[in-house]
Amino acid sequence: MKILFLLLSLILLLVQGAAGERGRGEEGQIKCWRQRGFCTIHACPQATHIIGKCS
């Protein structure tokens, strides 16, 4: 029974960590929007520059 309790605690800890990792990608987009930029997957259009992952 103790093993089950420890296993459940470990699973919950891993789920919280995975949720935190997923949210980090959005942080770059928010920073970009604050600096009046826009996010793109492809190369930057002419007359724009890169701000981290955004342009």
Concise overview:
By secondary structure, this protein is mainly α. It has one helix and no strands.
What features would you highlight for this structure?
rod-shaped, 55 residues, mainly alpha
What does this structure look like?
This is Beta-defensin-like domain-containing protein. Pfam families: Defensin_beta. It comes from Malurus cyaneus samueli. There is one protein chain. By secondary structure, this protein is mainly α. Helix content is 60%, strand content 0%. It has 1 helix and no strands. The protein is rod-shaped and about 65 Å long. The mean pLDDT is 64.
Residue runs with pLDDT of under 50 for 5 or more positions? none
Strand portion, in percent?
under 5%
User: The biggest beta sheet, please?
Assistant: none
Number of strands: 0
> Approximately how much helix is present in the residues?
55-70%
Estimated structural class: mainly alpha
**What value does the Rg take, in angstroms?**
19 Å
Order of helices and strands: H
Given the C-alpha coordinates, what overall shape results? rod-shaped
Distance between the termini: 53 Å
Mean pLDDT: 64
Number of helices: 1
Domain Beta-defensin-like: 30-55
Protein name: Beta-defensin-like domain-containing protein
Signal peptide: 1-20
GO cellular component, one term: extracellular region
